[in-house]
Every structure is written in structure tokens, then in C-alpha cells.
Write a structure and sequence with these properties.
Mean pLDDT: 84
Number of strands: 0
Largest sheet: none
Distance between the termini: 47 Å
Order of helices and strands: HH
Helix content: 55-70%
Number of helices: 2
Strand content: under 5%
Oligomer: single chain
Shape: flat
Amino acid sequence: MTTPNKPVPADQKPEDVTISEGLAKILEADALLTPEQEDAMADKARAAAKESQDAHNNHQDE
């Protein structure tokens, strides 16, 4: 397993990225976001989740 601070090569395939590497990227990105950006991303995620749930519910009703 690689250390979280080791950069991942740009040509590395997504399926070859370890969980630790992925988590490290998420934590690094989180440190760069402002609270306003976090709120905006959370709002988008909630809207996307609601859309997905609505589509799922509509599909079940058919």
C-alpha cells in the first residue's frame, strides 16, 4: 500500500488507485475548499440525490 502523500501518476487507471490514495485525494481537495464551496457542493449533492430518488420512485410506479 502506498502512503497517502505519494502522488498518483496521471496515467494511472482509476481501477488501479488504492482506497488510501483515493481518500488522500479527497482529504487534500477538502482542505482547499472554502466553506461556501462546501455548502454549494452539498446543495448540488442533495439536489442530485433527490432527482435520483424521484426517478427511482417514478420508475417503480410504472
